Amino acid sequence: MGYEFSIDDVAFLRSRHGRKALLTTAESTLTPEALLREMPDLRARYGDRAAALVEIVRTRRKAAGKLADAGELLAGDVALQQATASAVAEHRAADIARHRPDAVVHDVTCSIGAEVVALADTPGIAGVIGSDTDPVRLAMAEHNIGHRDRRAPWVVARADALVPTSTADVVIADPARRSARGRTFRLDELDPPLMELLTVYAGRELAVKCAPGLDYRLLRDRFGFAGQAQAVSLDGGVREVCLWSEITRPARRATVLRSRGDGYEVTSADPDEIEDPGVDDWIIDPDGAVVRAGLVRHYARRHGLRQLDPQIAYLTGDRVPSGERGFRVIDRFGTSERGLRTALAARDCGSLEILVRGIDVDPDRLRKRLKLSGSTPYALIITRIGRAGTAFLCEPGRRGGDA
Ligand SMILES: C[S@@+](CC[C@H](N)C(=O)[O-])C[C@H]1O[C@@H](n2cnc3c(N)ncnc32)[C@H](O)[C@@H]1O
User: What Cα–Cα distance (Å) separates residue 204 from each residue in 107, 157, 244, 245, 305?
Assistant: First the structure.
């Protein structure tokens, strides 16, 4: 648990004295080892506010690369972890502006305001409302949004998301997880609960950001959710599944964002007829958002690829799409450990990246048991073709488009 800020702390941090104190505190190292040494001096200068100053400076350092304007941020560690990365929030805001030009957007769980900032800076958004039940986070949001001019007018206010308080054209919500049990969770463990949000805002344009592990198929089959499930990844990591209530959108969408280079989108409205499964020169591991959204065939069709097996998400083809990871196939074996050990030793295998899909193998344990002692790096892709476990020995992974 990080430091618990009070409203008075936030008022201090926003004051002239507080801003100067933040600059001075930022000159300290503040690593766990240095803190014991540096804290007495900070306490002597800033008394009870020293802990708040340290937490803000450390959060700002962690936020660099995730949030725009990290150097101005007011947020505690938990709020930063929960905050939507700027690249993702900006994409969502642009998406809303494209679908619903000149919309007023209400973020009903705005926390420290990461999404409000992106919305208020996006051309085509007419106005932004941010609300939350936590007064301290709201005070921080006021600062995070208001420390510089924004394109669109905005306001933040305290309100319960489960009581509609505006007639905004689009509502967005990002419920917090009440338990920290890994990536999957129960629908009723969200705060505010997902089903209540969907009920309260039925008939309105709503986007709800959920964890990547959300079982959106269950939501559709059991609870009649009729909108779009969008899986979003940033630089290869799946960040969220966003539910969009509009039924005019294709049922599934994968959004692949990259800090460097172009991203792309695939939807369930794209064609998905591909050639029968087989093995070509390269094996391609599609982006996690494409896999999570169940759009592997759609993606394959776009790039002239096919599957190794109809049930498995690995693709194969004669080239690797730009920006994607591909592995050139050298050889193919069964999955007997003894056979693998002999084959890898014969090829002087040293380091080995192991990728597994559709079969129960722990890559780290297997790597240890293979007792590699050579000097050549390889990749091993272990999967199932039909019912047979199959291991593909490959050259180390390369990004398509690389020389
Ligand atoms: C995961 S955080 C939102 C993070 C935000 N999207 C961002 O990018 O910074 C969830 C927020 O929901 C708020 N919250 C929980 N229950 C709420 C409710 N019933 N009404 C309004 N806000 C609520 C919490 O205080 C918390 O700030």
Answer: 13, 21, 10, 8, 39
User: Which residues have any ligand 1 atom within 6 Å of their CB?
Assistant: 82-84, 108-109, 111-112, 114-115, 132-134, 137, 160-162, 174, 176, 191-192
Q: What's this model's pTM, rounded to 2 decimal places? A: 0.93
Ligand 1 site-directed mutation target among 109, 134, 214, most atoms within 8 Å of CB? 109
Could you tell me the distance, in angstroms and rounded to a whole number, from the CA of residue 138 to the centre of ligand 1? Answer: 10
197 and 112 together in one domain = yes
By the 10 Å C-beta count (0-12 exposed, 13-18 middle, 19+ buried), 85 is classed as buried
In which band, very low, low, confident or very high, does the pLDDT at 400 lie, cut at 50, 70 and 90? confident
**Distance, CA 132 to ligand 1 centroid (Å)?**
6
Which domain, by its residues, includes 129? 82-265
DSSP letter at 221? H
Say whether both 168 and 40 belong to one domain: no
Q: Total structural domains in the chain?
A: 3
Q: What percent of the chain has pLDDT over 70?
A: 97
Spatial CA neighbour of 130 closest among 152, 146, 113, 151: 113
Nearest to 291 by CA among 247, 245, 325, 319: 325
- Distance between CA atoms of 251 and 267, rounded to whole angstroms? 8
What's the pLDDT tens digit per position in 295-322?
999 999 999 999 999 999 999 999 999 8
